[in-house]
Design brief:
two-stranded antiparallel sheet; two-stranded antiparallel ribbon; about 325 residues; about 5% strand; single chain; mainly alpha
Length: about 325
């Protein structure tokens, strides 16, 4: 897979770069064409994202206290709206700081742990903490000491087998979806934050997915959503995303990924595009801000992520020690 483009049935790059979708255009410029943030085209795409209807609609609906909607709980009133801004590539102009402070004040503990109360029980949740870590890095909190505290807390929660625990149930269990959340956050870390401890943690998480055939960790009957691709992904994952997350750290010839890599490639059409096969779980409320892609039709988002996965596997495998 030295030239990842040989795995494409057609050239969809210009389609992804269409200005009518500045969100996909921005990520295509950054991920597939490796253009820096200060590149003129990237800057223009960011400006278009800032002025887009979805972003402006969300920002205008924020309450003065910092949350959205009628639920003032720190996570419930901020998390999903910040998620949308994050997914669309919005980098913030200081205008989401109220929401970030509102959420952090209601969930971050002095030792860096993150949690919230559900049905009278306060739970510390690494999956939500990993998502918050991504938001902190994106929205201007890289130099805030709370950010590294949160990272350190997440790292130390990892189980010996490489997974992270889910404590949302009365009986906690190791969760592959939570592990994908953490790998997303690790991918966004500044280079100087990737310490030997983080490298070892990432290595163990990647190894867990490889040994579990990506989707079979702790599951006799894995969810069918593992085999369906779509955007956005909120509280689950799928084979494509995990391959994208582990791609830079696994040989494309590794026997353990061949079945799943073939599944991804088989979904590609003659034009080099991948279809939208699912919408986010419980995500109908999002339609008031932006329309999902049509099920069964070519998806710019899925195609973008599939191409990013192939590109990552074509690049040199990084040391994991």
């Amino acid at each position: 897979m030295n030239n990842w483009q040989t795995y494409l049935n057609g050239d969809a790059l210009n389609w992804l770069l269409e200005e009518s979708n500045p969100f996909v255009r921005y990520f295509t410029l950054r991920w597939l064409l490796d253009k820096p943030e200060d590149d003129a085209e990237v800057v223009a795409a960011q400006e278009a994202i800032c002025q887009s209807v979805p972003v402006q609609k969300i920002l205008k609906r924020q309450r003065p206290e910092g949350y959205w909607g009628s639920d003032p709980r720190p996570l419930h009133g901020t998390g999903r709206y910040l998620n949308i801004l994050f997914w669309l590539g919005y980098r913030g102009n200081g205008d989401v700081q109220r929401a970030m402070e509102y959420r952090m004040a209601g969930g971050l503990l002095p030792d860096g742990a993150y949690g919230y109360e559900i049905k009278g029980r306060f739970m510390k949740l690494p999956c939500h903490g990993a998502i918050l870590l991504q938001h902190m890095l994106r929205f201007g909190y890289r130099d805030d000491p709370r950010t590294k505290k949160l990272l350190n807390w997440i790292v130390q929660l990892q189980e010996p087998d490489g997974a992270w625990p889910c404590v949302s149930k009365e009986r906690p269990f190791s969760c592959s979806w939570a592990t994908a959340d953490v790998l997303r956050a690790y991918r966004d870390l500044p280079a100087d934050w990737v310490t030997p401890r983080v490298v070892a943690s990432r290595h163990n998480a990647v190894a867990m997915f490889l040994e579990a055939n990506i989707y079979q960790y702790g599951k006799n009957k894995p969810s069918p959503r593992w085999f369906e691709f779509g955007f956005p992904i909120e509280w689950d994952s799928d084979i494509l995303e995990v391959l994208e997350l582990i791609g830079p750290f696994v040989s494309p010839a590794d026997e353990r990924i061949q079945e799943n890599l073939a599944l991804v490639l088989d979904k590609q059409d003659d034009q080099g595009c991948w279809p939208c096969e699912k919408h986010p779980k419980g995500g109908q409320w999002m339609k008031k801000f932006f329309e999902f892609e049509e099920l069964g039709q070519p998806s710019k988002w899925v195609t973008l992520h599939a191409m990013r996965m192939l590109k990552s596997m074509s690049e040199s495998v990084k040391e994991m020690s």
